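FIELD: query
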Amino acid sequence: MGAYLLRSKSVTYRPRTSIDKKQNVMLDRGGSRALAYGPEGACRESAMVPEKIATFLDGATVGFGATRDGKLVPQVYFVVGWSCAEDRQAITCLFPAGRDEKLISSLEDNGQFSFTVLGSTSGPRASNPPNPGVDFHECYQFKGDYVASRPGNEGDLPLVRRKGEQFKALFQPLFGFSERACTARFRRPVLAVTFKVREIYDQTPGPGAGARIREEEG
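FIELD: result
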């Protein structure tokens, strides 16, 4: 069956109430936040995710977000779902309960975010038929600038469930994880974070690991 692409609409944000100039964010009555201007005065230019990499994201099974706080201390967060905007310039990541306050405080401090995702049966290097032992290794890292956040909602659940099923399909035959262990990782999201992609890197083990990917290379 062909890749099932679930993407959010192109991301546009407008101020609805007030601007907190200390934290550089727009504050929304519904609990959403959107970056008003970056630490240097404006959001930097974004890059477009190549179509093949967007297709990889659709089938990918493991994702981690990373930030650093004002003291340059890094933090890593498990991501339970993600979607690429239709214009392929932004990605939205879903996070379960845990350290969401730390995540937001770091993003509001400096706006820097990275997203590393791996293990896909729909990427440029995917095996046909799928081979979990090989497909597990394909990996990409996206670096960018924080744009907006909102609380998780019921509409996010189908994506989270689908990611859980993809994770189980790839990792059960590979590592023998129980169904309970697989589903426990993909908990209900409490926070959605959108960032504009600035740089993409190939992190697949091999001679090309660490190479930057550009739109024309996709």
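FIELD: remark
Helices lie at 51-59, 100-110, 132-135, 157-175, 179-185.
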